[in-house]
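job 3f2a | input accepted
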Amino acid sequence: MVLQIRLLALLMGLATLCPARRTDDIPDDKEWEAFKMQYNKAYSSGNEEKIRRQIFFQNKMMIKKHNYRYAQNLTSFKVALNHLGDKMRGEITAFFTGPQQQHVVNNSIEPIPLTGDYEWIPSSIDWRQKGAVTGVKSQLQCASGWAFATTGSLEGQLYRHSQRLISMSEQNLIDCCHLCYGCSGGRMDYAFTYIMQNGGLDSEVAYPYEARVCTTTPTVHQLN
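job 3f2a | predicted structure (224 res):
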């Protein structure tokens, strides 16, 4: 009898050392169904959906851990769930980068040396607060990050020089910068060369993004 009491006390002590699993760590099918509905997800089989569901909750836990680190000032940014929440990291990399192309590096551009006193330059600048950054864009399933990097750079420079924040056309670059490979990759320096030779670039309103190589002809004169 005494032994049973001691065993019971020991088990109760272990229970206090091992707290119950948090309810917000338990996969919730309502969240999964809401995610599928929000992003119009459809899978080829029940087995694929089972795998995607597992990946979704793994990513959700990763996001939670990362944002906890953000709250502790251990990292500089937060993350959130989006349409890629049911994909693995390797899939996402392939999704955005596509097949890798060989590029000839242009070594004719000489770097400009910095001279003078730069002690007055601040350690960091948030250009979003200054109104020089357009909203978040999505390249969708098209390896056109080179085009978005190019337009983002030009949009900021245009704002600095004219105080006009205009979203520029990535599609214009995808279709017309023939030194690049459309949705299969490209380089910013080639894109800049095209813009200079073309005399400017269209706005996104005039030449909207389609996430594919197409033959659309812009109907509005480009910005220069």
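job 3f2a | The first helix runs from residue 2 to 17.
job 3f2a | closed
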